Amino acid sequence: MSEGPTVVIVGAGIAGLALALALAERGIASHLLERATRLEEVGAGLQLSPNATRVLAGLGLGPGLDAVGVRPAAIAIRDAAAGREIVRLPLGPAFEAAHGAPYVVVHRGDLQALLLDAVARRPEITLSLGAVVDRVEDGADAVAVEATIAGARRRLVADVLVGADGVWSRVRGDVLRAGGAVYSGRTAWRATLPVEALPAGGDFGSVTGLWLGAKAHLVHYPIRAGRAFNIVAAVDDTWADERWNVVGDRDDLIRHFADWPADVRRLLELPETWRKWALCAAPPTAPWVRGRIALIGDAQHGMLPFVAQGGAMAIEDAAVLARRLADTGAPVADRLAAYADDRRRRVADVVATARRNATVYHLAGLPALARNAAMRLMGPKRLLGGMEWIYGWRDAA
Ligand SMILES: Cc1cc2nc3c(=O)[nH]c(=O)nc-3n(C[C@H](O)[C@H](O)[C@H](O)COP(=O)(O)OP(=O)(O)OC[C@H]3O[C@@H](n4cnc5c(N)ncnc54)[C@H](O)[C@@H]3O)c2cc1C
């Protein structure tokens, strides 16, 4: 093993697991502390653009991702008021060849299971489930973490503590005293269906569909190697709740879409169960790093999912933090500062794009017509070109 620092990671979600793997690739040992006693298949779809799948492929997870995900042929952007397509952004072979990595849609539980399976095969990684962090002491030479793991008190001493504990992060809130999550005034409803339940015809199984409407939008795509179908409906709302798994009233959802095209309403009527979660963001003032403590993923920058980059930014963070921590020539504080410098600007730009899309996606009337006309005028090439700063990202060697 190299001379890298020891790292305690709080949270074994997408960010924490990816970080542990990226560190192990560089010979750095880590201990993951996950609050849940079992990592169940919670959640629904995640979209992973090439900036993220490139990192996962570098961790040896490309074939595994292909086995559980789907490579959509295009993103079909549609206008709910007119019930027709505005523009179609191709993600097929030419897009993949240009990026050297695919766009993949996947069930969050499948991605987490894939990462967990890889973690279990790495001797450098210890994973403790049912772990509650009780106290953190950030000292000049080390960080000490007192935790209750499966009922027993433990004291772990490491060079670095990483908060990868999601948008409701306790490392950010309780340890760094940097604020709680901020509700966005929007709710996401999500459901999954077996593909057999879908109406015949159409391109449901092969594209990501993005429908734009007044005060709401809808995203759907296939997951689970094409065996299942994921639908997410985002609506302007005032409901606030911390849970991911609240069962929503389907009639309540359908009421939001009463004026939408009949095909869309029929689609929304298909799932037996809809779950909903109140969309929220990390506070904009959340630090990246303080002392020997760093934040990654949603803990630092939980964002609106309107540019489909929450998971991707978490994966990028993991790659960059592992690279910086492996730089044994610099003191740990400098390595962490370099990680923050690498990430701050890029993530702020992505968060701002998501916020802008939240307005643009939910326009109505004349502004919506102007948006659609502008998208048609730009066409697929320029629209995809406008995303290149996100999709074309590559970590430094
Ligand atoms: C249950 C769940 C379901 C989700 N479903 C979707 C979805 O359907 N679609 C979507 O786009 N995004 C979903 N997300 C969010 C998405 O996974 C993240 O935006 C993205 O992947 C960034 O990941 P992250 O690892 O930073 O945070 P998360 O994925 O939120 O992972 C955080 C991890 O930290 C653990 N944790 C939290 N607090 C503590 C603590 N105090 N101590 C120890 N561990 C702790 C959590 O149990 C979790 O495993 C979901 C997240 C969760 C937790």
Automatic annotation (TrEMBL):
All residue ranges annotated as the FAD-binding domain in the record: 6-353
Annotated SUPFAM superfamilies: FAD-linked reductases, C-terminal domain (SSF54373), FAD/NAD(P)-binding domain (SSF51905)
Molecular function (Gene Ontology), one example: monooxygenase activity
Gene3D superfamilies with a match to the protein in the record: FAD/NAD(P)-binding domain (3.50.50.60)
Transmembrane region(s): none
Requisite cofactors: FAD
Sorted UniProt keywords: FAD, Flavoprotein, Monooxygenase, Oxidoreductase
InterPro entries xrefs: FAD-bd (IPR002938), FAD-dep_Monooxygenase_BioMet (IPR050493), FAD/NAD-bd_sf (IPR036188)
Protein name stated in the entry: Salicylate hydroxylase
Organism: Oharaeibacter diazotrophicus
